[in-house]
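Hello forum,

I keep getting stuck at the same step: I have a sequence, I want structure tokens, and every attempt I make locally crashes halfway through. Rather than fight my setup again tonight, could one of you with a working pipeline run this one for me? It's a single chain of 147 residues.
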Amino acid sequence: MSDASRLRLPDGYEFSTDTARVDVDLVHRWLSTDAYWASGRTREKHEQAMASSINFGVYDRASGAQVAYARGVTDRALFAWLADVYVDRSVRGKGVGTAFVAGVRDHLASFGIRRILLATADAHGVYERLGFTPLEDPGTWLIHRFE
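Reply #2:
Ran it on my machine without issues. Output:
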């Protein structure tokens, strides 16, 4: 097991997959106003995305406040897409984000999936420390956009 597999959240924070704990208002505000990939996303679209995903959160144990969010879109057998990873600015640089993504990765891996994909314009170093690598042959991937 690699060191990245044993990452733990800093003291005072807890990881959860309980969708009922997600502060939907807060997460929607984070994503629609502060995340380049989701800027302007409507609350309705966000709720649809949540309903079709495994929702992950990190919470401050003392206050119960949510400090991070991510979604996993998966068939729970072979494949997962890691989406909407967001860490509140107040806890960035404290190890919360890296440990959070490690927890999400490990939870998704527990289904026996063969790969997790994500797309990001930043934080490549964080993801690489956790075993993510660039696509070996991006020329085999295609996309269809409805924009």
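Residues 96-109 form the longest helix (14 residues). If your local run keeps crashing, start a new thread with the error log.
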